[in-house]
Amino acid sequence: MGNLLKVLTCTELEHGPIVFLDFEHAQPTEAETAVYNQVSAVLEEAHGILAELQSYNGAGQEIREAIQNPGDLALQERAWNAVCPLVAKLKRFYEFSLRLENALRSLLEALTSPPYAPMQHLEREQALAKQFAEILHFTLSFDELKMTNPAIQNDFSYYRRTISRNRLNNQQLEAENEVNNEMANRMSLFYAEATPMLKTLSNATTKFVSENKTLPIEDTTDCLSTMACVCRVMLETPEYRCRFTNTDTMLFCMRVMVGVIILYDHVHPVGAFAKTSKIDMKGCIKVLKEQPSNSVEGLLNALRYTTRHLNDDSTSKQIRALLQ
């Protein structure tokens, strides 16, 4: 099927057939076009969001000077003027997470709808599977940057404290018109998460499953486990890796694999680490550990700290040891 090549048969893999998905070149069929265009409009913003986050330096110096000199109005104003455009930027990031959530829902609907099985969907809707992967890649990239930038929460905390102080003094600042109290509360909950984008997608996937009562939960979890297996096979098999024309595709595959594992672990009743899981967790972790540590430590930490079932009694000691 075009860029999607079947590479292993049922007898070659314990958990069913595996496909090689060309993440680099898959193009939409006519049947995919409506959803593809909707999701593309969201993904077009993703690169800009990551670039903005990567260059986010914060207003630490201005805030420290203002706190150390509470009576100096010029320093207070300087800190406030430095923080306001940064908070507007944080608001854009938060609002993008809501659009990303809607895009994920559209893809889940397309990739799990009857009468096709998850494997058939991945074969028939290559471009949508690629977009699903791109959302996960963006999500883990965003969260890695956010986790290593304490300025984000420091800036937002200072903003909220200043708003509260001025409200007590019956003063309203212009910035409140852009980020009112209700929006600030929602943003505060979002940025309080260690991995806010991943939390957004996990909640969206769980909500999708709970709202679609007629859709067996396995249709969603099998879609996720199949994508995890696809990525693992592509990463651990040299003849498939050599098909990548872009050097970044390796990291792309790793991020996607970790992303679908985490979503699976949040949605599936017993999670990704149990013996009955359709994801080969040992294989996935080993593939990650074979890569340079500086490129995968954030991904291993995501498995350690953002999954739901790692510390369950059903998780084997071997798997826990691999993630220590």
Automatic annotation (TrEMBL):
<dbReference type="InterPro" id="IPR009828">
    <property type="entry name" value="CYRIA/CYRIB_Rac1-bd"/>
</dbReference>
<comment type="similarity">
    <text>Belongs to the CYRI family.</text>
</comment>
<keyword id="KW-0472">Membrane</keyword>
<protein>
    <submittedName>
        <fullName>Family with sequence similarity 49 member A, like</fullName>
    </submittedName>
</protein>
<dbReference type="InterPro" id="IPR039789">
    <property type="entry name" value="CYRI"/>
</dbReference>
<feature type="domain" description="CYRIA/CYRIB Rac1 binding">
    <location>
        <begin position="19"/>
        <end position="320"/>
    </location>
</feature>
<dbReference type="GO" id="GO:0030833">
    <property type="term" value="P:regulation of actin filament polymerization"/>
</dbReference>
<dbReference type="Pfam" id="PF07159">
    <property type="entry name" value="CYRIA-B_Rac1-bd"/>
</dbReference>
<keyword id="KW-0449">Lipoprotein</keyword>
<dbReference type="GO" id="GO:0016020">
    <property type="term" value="C:membrane"/>
</dbReference>
<dbReference type="GO" id="GO:0031267">
    <property type="term" value="F:small GTPase binding"/>
</dbReference>
